[in-house]
Every structure is written in C-alpha cells, then in structure tokens.
Amino acid sequence: MKNIKFLIPAIAILIIVSLYGCNLTATSTKMVTPEIRVMGLPDPSIVESVTLKIYGPDMDTVEVSYSIVPSIINMAIPEGDDVTFKLTVGMSAAYTGTVASYKGSATADISSDGTVVTLNMSIGKTRIVIPDANNNRIVQINDMSGDGWLAKTGTDLGFPVVSNFKPYDVDFDQYGNIYIANNNSGIYGGIYYLSSLTNTMPIKILWNLTNSGMKAVSVDKRNNRVYGIYSNGGTEYVIYNSLLGNPAYGSAFVDFNDGLTIINGITVDGDGDVYICGGFNSDGWIKKYDSSGTLIITSPSFGTGNSVSDITILNDELYATIRYGTKVEIEKFNPDTLEHSAVPFSYGAYSASPSAPGEFGSLYNFLATMNDKLTVIDNLYDSGVARLISIEDILGTGWKTYGTLGTNAGQFEFFDSGI
Amino acid sequence: MKKYIFTVILLALTSFLFADITALVKDVSGKVEIMAPGGRWKKATAGMKIEEGYFISTGFRSEAVLELGPSQVVVKQLTRMELEELIEKEGTVNTSLNLRVGKIKAEVRTTAGLRQNFRLTSPVSTAAVRGTSFEYDGVNLTVTEGTVVFTNILGQGRSVQAGEISKILGAGLPQSSEEISALLASTNPSTLTIPQDFDISNILDALNNLANITIILNWGE
C-alpha cells in the first residue's frame, strides 16, 4: 500500500509515453512503418460512372457505359489494327477520397476471336488538395467550384496543438495518397503521409535530425521515393527517402553549395529525374538531376534578382511560377534543355488588385493536382489576395479562380510573407 | 375384366397426357440430310417425318423448312441440329432443339388450348421462347416478334424483346441491343436505331465481322 504513491506517477508516465509513441511524434524511438494505401477495385457505392471508349484508324469512336465497375468485360468489336481501349471510372461527388477518377488504356490489334486486352488501371484525376498554412489546415475540394469542401486542422488530424501543423506543400503518390510538407519548426516539422483527409494521425515519413520545417515535397512515382526541402542555418537542403523508408531521417540528395542559394520548389518527372528551382543567384533558376543526384543540366541564367517560386510537370512540359517584384508570371520550359519553350512561353502579369484573367498578385506553389490543369496559389496577403488559379495551358485557357482571404470555408491564408 | 378395362382407360388417359406432335420436313433446297438415332445420313425430302433424336444437316447455300407442330423452323445453310424433344404434355407443347452449329430462324406459334415451351440450346447458350419469331445461331439472337429469354451456360440471362438483338460471349451475360448497336455504330451509324422494318440481315452481317475479345481490368491487387 505504501508503494501506491509510486504507482500513480508510473501509470501517468506510461500514459504519456503511450501518447508520445503515436505516429505524429519524431521523438519516439520505435519506428512506425506505414502501410501505403494501394489500388483496388473501387467500392460500387463510390463510383458514379464507368465509360469504355474504343477507337481505331478504321473505326469511329464507340462508347459503352456500365452501371458497375467490372473486373472483366467480354464484348465483340469490329476487327482492326491499333484499336485503342480507354476506360474511365468516375468517383461520385460525395466521395471524400483524393481520387476523382481512375483510368486505364491499351492498344491492340483485333483480328480474331479471343484477344485479351489488359487495362492497367491508375489514377486519372485527383481532387484539389490545398495546404492552407496560416490557417493550420489542409483543405480538399472536388474542383474549382469549391464543391466537396473538406478541411482538417492540425488538431483534427491529431497534432497536440493546431499550430503544430503548418502545411506548405502537398503531393500525391501514384495511388492518390497525400504527402504533406509540414513547416513546423519544432519536432513536428517533416514530410507526412496521409491516405486521405477522412483519416487522422498522419505518419511522419521524412525529416531531418535538426527538426527543421519542410517547405516543399515531391513524390517520385517511378522510384517510389519522396523528396523534401528544408532550411537550416541559412543553408537549403534536399533530402529523400523511399515511401516506406525506415529510418525516415532521409539521405542528402545533392550539395547545394553549387549555385542555388535558395531552393523554393521541387518536382519529379515520369523518368524519376528531379527538377529543383530557386533564386537569388546568377547561375540559373532550375537544375535537373537524375535520381542518383548527378546534375544533368542547369537552365540558362535569367538574371540576378529573379526567383522561381515553384515548378511542375504537365503534359511533358515544365512550368514555373516566377515571382520577383512586379514580375509575376507563369513560364513554360523544355524539360530536356531547360530553355524556354516556343513563344508564347509566359502568361500573366502582376496587379496590385488582380481580378481579370491573367492578373496575378504573387504566385507561389503549384498544387499537385493530377487533373490536366495547372493549379497555382496566388497570394498577396497585404492586398487581401488568397486564391487558387487554374488554367489549362500557357495561353491561360480555362482561367478559373477560387477562394478569398480568410479563415472560413472557401477562404485561405496561405503565407503572410515570402517563403 | 375390370383389370382389362382399367388398363384401357389408363392407356387412353396416358395418350391424352403425352401426345406426340408431328414433325415434318416441309421444304428443302440444296443439300439437306437427316439422320435417325443410330442410323446413317440420308437425303431429306419434303414430306419426310422426323422424330425425337433425329439430326438435320444443311450444306452450303442449302436450307430446310421444318414444321414442328404449329411452329416453323427454317434451318439455314451450314447448320447441324438435333430434335431433342417434341411432345405435348399436360397442355404444353415441349420443343427442344440442340443447335450444334449454324443458324436457324424460328416462328413459334401457339394453338388454342396449348402452351408453348420452345427451347433452343447451343454449347454456350439457351433461348427459351414464348410465341415469337427470331433468328438464332447459338451465340447471336435476333427477335422480330414476341419475347425470348436468352441465357448463358450459367443460367444467367435476360429477356430479349421484339426488335432487339443479343449476343452471348463466353460465360458472359447476354449483351443488350444498345450495347451491340453502340458497337455497330463504328461501321454504320444508321444502325444505332433499329426500325421495325429494318433489314435485320445487315446487322447480322456486321455481327459476323465482329471479334470476341476479353478486357481485363488490372487494379493492382
């Protein structure tokens, strides 16, 4: 009975240790190996449409719809060479996962009965997932209409304090899982894995030993690798790890004492080559590396004082957001040469109170949506601008905006100053 | 004596419950042959009587017209078919034809006081018929009048109405007219809508140029 005064603190310590042993904590010595959510036949309840298109040089497009997601389709089609099959599975608007649609495509010669065509299904389009940094939350919307608004703050996700969660950047893997760069400067800084916003307790999968906040993330879908960018002591670092890496401290990717003094963004193409952008140097804005970290090419210098905010790959073209003073625009580059594409290679201009298509406040990150569009954060905090802009190409086709500055639904507070 | 009378009554009653329906070769053109169970193939001629277990075979550009009770079956060229059953039982005419290969066109007619149970089977499908007119080759079914219940070898099926065509692919479900018409749109958009007086043989010709394929969806599981 005398020992009960030791027993109570011991139980309390056990409870604290148990709580700190959760996935959110970097101080736990026991590593948590995440189980990456992979593909699977979608539940019929979350599917809205299933459409198969068949076309070829000798036939018009045939379109067949199905009421359920099939695993095997038996059918008869006209004989012919180079017949293309494209299947699209659209998710219902009420579905809260990150995937908006799945797709599968194959081409085959059809000359006799019994041909078997295999469609390897993958993500067609995703929802738009937005790092709303100063609101300490991550937001998902179905499209630029804002439908399907779903927001999770730091505490919603399981962080002890809402400010522990300061998401700066987001990317997807090939299965639609979310990777979040948390710029919290304490132990919660790092890259987190979250299968969808309907889940909590994101798993920390990449960080550095100094607990610096991560400001950008990119997933290499070819090599199943995640990259993160952080600053420490005035130096910028790029580290990486496998998606299921253990330990998650990561490995240094390249030495950045060779030109880019500030690293703003990172993206990975379908071959696993890595593009890194930065500014305030006279050597170049964008560098391209292979997955081993060997420099492939550096872009031509665009002049001291310019800065590339972020870069992304869309339809095998490299796009960059340029933000320096009153020069605010989106530019398009050849990913092989890192030189500007053919004219027109730029779109948009600065405006102190942007409203018309092509007017930007200050361009920041591209959002990692997989939907055949460029979706970018336009943030001019002092002018009350905090919105998303979506365009389809460098001509600004399909210009759409969404969001205002604020803390409510339909509002964002991305960054209060440059990053 | 009582026992004898009872037997006579029983025989009469039995003949009432199970009555054979006459099956005749009504017309032939080209090379048409018939084979009785355990017998040999012999040339078919108009007026020949055929019975259960008989096979009928048609050659290239040949055709036979059969009268199976009140119904009529046109056996198209390059067809081999067995008359498995043709009997009237308890007010129902049961007709069962086993189509080994080829194509037939049937007009199933009813007579007063009798129901029709007309079944066509092939290695991959069964067409059960209720007072209708249709064409059938074991895989493809075209209904021009009435309704045909079309099932695959697993017994899964659908009703095919007048003006509709359906197709059985492997063990798959019969495809609807719309699905097949959509496919045919690739060769002739005008076939998307099939009017009642449309020459259905055009569609069948197109169907004959289709290849059966299987599409497998790999979800990475």
> What's the Cα radius of gyration of chain A?
23 Å
* Distance separating the two termini of chain B: 79 Å
Low-confidence runs of chain A (pLDDT<50, min 5 residues)?
1-33
Mean pLDDT, all residues of chain A: 83
Structural class of chain B: mainly beta
Measured distance between first and last alpha carbons of chain A: 59 Å
The coarse silhouette of chain B is globular
Largest sheet of chain B: 16 strands, mixed
Largest interface: A-B, 38 and 28 residues
Tell me the strand order in the biggest sheet of chain A: 2-1-4-5-7
Overall average pLDDT of chain B: 71
Number of helices of chain A: 2
Could you tell me the strand content of chain A as a percent range?
A: over 45%
Task: Tell how many strands the DSSP assignment of chain A holds.
Answer: 34
Beta-strand content bin of chain B: over 45%
Helix share, percent of chain B = 10-25%
The number of helical elements of chain B comes to: 3
Features:
heterodimer, A: 419 residues, mainly beta, five-stranded antiparallel sheet, four-stranded antiparallel sheet, 2 helices, 5% helix, 46% strand, globular, disordered N terminus, B: 221 residues, 16-stranded mixed sheet, 3 helices
Question: Explain this structure to me?
Answer:
The complex is a heterodimer of chains A (419) and B (221). Chain A has helices at residues 4-20, 154-157, and strands at residues 47-56, 59-66, 72-78, 80-91, 99-110, 115-120, 122-126, 128-132, 137-141, 150-153, 167-172, 178-182, 190-194, 203-206, 214-220, 225-232, 235-242, 251-252, 262-268, 274-279, 286-289, 295-298, 308-314, 317-324, 327-333, 346-347, 349-350, 359-360, 363-366, 374-380, 385-391, 400-402, 404-405, 411-412. The longest helix of chain A is centred in the N-terminal third of the chain and has 17 residues, at 4-20. By secondary structure, chain A is mainly beta. Chain A is 5% helix and 46% strand. Chain B contains three helices and 17 strands. Chain B has a 16-stranded mixed beta sheet that branches. Chain B starts with a helix and ends with a strand. The interface between A and B is medium-sized, with 38 and 28 residues.
